[in-house]
Amino acid sequence: MRRGLGIAVLTAIALAVTACGSSGSSGSKTTGGSGSGGGGGSSSASVSGAKTLQASALDNPPKGTITYCTGKDTTGDAAYTVAQFNAKYGAQGYHANLVQFPASADQQRAQFIQRQQAKSSSCDVFSSDVIWTAEFSSQHWLYDLTPYVSANASKFIAAPLDTVHYGGKYWGIPQTSDAAFIYYKTGEAVPSTWQQVYSAAKNSGGIVYQGAPYEGLTCNFLELAFAAGGQVLSADGKKSAINSPQNLAALQLMVSGIKGGSAPQAVTTYMEPESDQAFDTGKYGYLRNWTYAYAVHNTTGALKGKIHAAPLPTFAGAGKASILGGHNSVISVYSQDPGLALKFADFFASPAMQKAAILKFSLAAIIPSVYKDPDVLKAVPYAPQLLQALDQAKARPVSPVYPQISQAIYTNVNNALAGRESPQAALKAADSQINSALSTF
Amino acid sequence: MATVANQVGAPAPTRQRSKGLSEKALARLMVSPSMILIALVAAWPVIYAIWLSLHQYSVRVAGLSRWVGVDNYWTSGLSNPDWRSALYHTLIFTVVSVSFEVVIGLGMALAMHRAFRGQGLLRTVVLVPWAVLTVVTAVMWRTMFVSPYGFVNTILGTHTVWLGQTPYALIIVILADVWKTSPFIALLLLAGLQVIPDDIYEAAKVDGATTWQQFVRITLPLLKPAILVALIFRTLDALRIFDLPYVLTQGTVGTSTLSTISQQTFATNRLYGEGSAQAILAFIIVMMVSFAYIRFIGGNIRGMTAE
């Protein structure tokens, strides 16, 4: 009898213990038709049945308050924009609230997904990372904003606008952008090809970048791969195209860079903070990082005033590319006042707010005219390079299974960088993992 | 889980015999609130997870799902090389870390048990790692081993990339866990030491037993129940390890565990069916280990305490 009791108690403990792992999921999942899912990939790039928001909705929306959800407002841009919106439209009865999610992108995504699964109206506008568009829109969580975007398309820089485009429709309005630079210390050669970066780095202490197995490495690799002429997916998006001679050339340059001493072996464990700290020691001549790093290294730290930024160089014999970062304003289909939400998203993309974003908060604006503004040129000396970087930028693969695709890339590229796999074997493994990701139900 | 489910299914209390409730029915009635509570917080999430694990939920088409039976258990679990290596890492982590923790914890407990000046201070100091949050522990160890400017490399004069190489990364996860959790075992064993009566040792001394004989013949046997309880706690905990590998290496470079892989599948890749199947497999493994402990060691504990 006592044994039976003991087993029951342990069972209960084990139940409680493992339940923690899965109970977080219990958002309401609607169980749709349990058909065979026939055809698999045939619907890979079309979203049908989504709600469309007309451009005119922002003209005279019902009075009220909308909530803007965003990741932790580390720069202060979100709070500033919300305050400006309330100052301008408060008297007309239009208000916006700011809700901050955690700093980590994964956490922001999880927070938003939880709300959408629960059909909650608690986020009217969400600051969505450029890589989430396909996933969110194919789950019918976003308003189709095609009418608004089509009418205003010419105002935006092309590359950020591409990141809200999926399945022939536009699902958001660009908010801020981002692209990487090669930073170098005064006195180092200005790089014009990636090959030169690596050979110059060898004699100047090395280049540091983000080589840990995470999303950042996907960006670091694709910058070289896209410049070399490589692709991740075939043109129709149905098959992997990662195992190509172009991608191999890019990966081999990175791998031989580590083997030959142009980059420290430790980059295989670096994310942004570690690469910044390493560069700040002054031992390394070059750093690849996002826009924010200019302000970090040039206003504080040991290398203050001795840092220069260059747009990412060309791959010898091929072209150049940047990978686009940044965020878009997307509007939840569960919003009670989508018109007002659109008004807020439109305000965020307005020239005044975009000028403030780059001037006050070092964020990359998404409208070209800002980069020619005399105030901006005076305060942000790298503005022309930034616009150039955005113009040459390419978007990461747009797919509802992007997390799996990226995982296949960063895991195998990291294996190659750390010498656990040959570059050939790494791309072959990534190829089969991406193909199996694409066949996900 | 069947046990709980059955009990849950039978709270129907009012089977009246003649007048009033029979003793049995009354007992059921009074137990039912706690049973319902257990059902809600423990059984329901597990049953729901099992339900999820038998389906696949489309990441492409909103609201589309299909019944796949036990396919997920095979394709994402037992036959999946990533899951198998996660299982392998988890087992290595569990066996190695728990062994070290028990030995070190026993040493700490013996040291703390001795009466000497500064005993209170020692007990406090020993407990500090246990009081540190696991995530903070992980960040601390990451900082120590970050290459090349982490202080471990500075002291050793090396340039080793500790967190980027296959055996080292797992070793550091294990070291961090041993550092953090040995005090917990020490605490459990100290409690066990304090209930061993002093007169047994005195009698042994009178009979001329050496310190080593006292330890092997008296301390260890009488401490066995406490050691076994500590073992059960730590083993079940270690099998579910998530936070240390997640923060130290994001579960990469040979540190993936049953928990990190199901979190990755479920939360990052949003494959609810496959992720749930991996979580249920982890649950089954934890259950099997629990039963093994009850069966082979649990009887032992009762035998001990009964004496």
CATH class of the largest domain in chain B: Mainly Alpha
Tell me about the largest β-sheet of chain B. 2 strands, antiparallel
CATH class of the largest domain in chain A: Alpha Beta
Mean pLDDT of chain A: 86
How many domains would you count in the coordinates of chain B? 2
Terminal residue distance of chain A: 48 Å
Strand order of the largest sheet of chain B: 1-2
**H-E order of chain A:** HEHEHEHHHEEEEHEHHHEHEEEHHHHEHH
Query: What is the overall shape of chain B?
Result: flat
Largest interface: which pair? A-B, 64 and 67 residues
Q: Summarize model confidence as the mean pLDDT of chain B.
A: 87
Quaternary structure of the protein: heterodimer
Shape-level CATH architecture of the largest domain in chain A: 3-Layer(aba) Sandwich
CATH superfamily of the largest domain in chain A: Periplasmic binding protein-like II
Strand content of chain B: under 5%
Count of discrete structural domains of chain A: 2
Low-confidence stretches of chain A: 1-44
Keywords:
heterodimer; A: 441 residues; alpha/beta; D-Maltodextrin-Binding Protein, domain 2; 2 domains; five-stranded mixed sheet; four-stranded mixed sheet; 17 helices; globular; disordered N terminus; B: 307 residues; mainly alpha; MetI-like fold; two-stranded antiparallel sheet; 13 helices; 2 strands; 75% helix; 2% strand
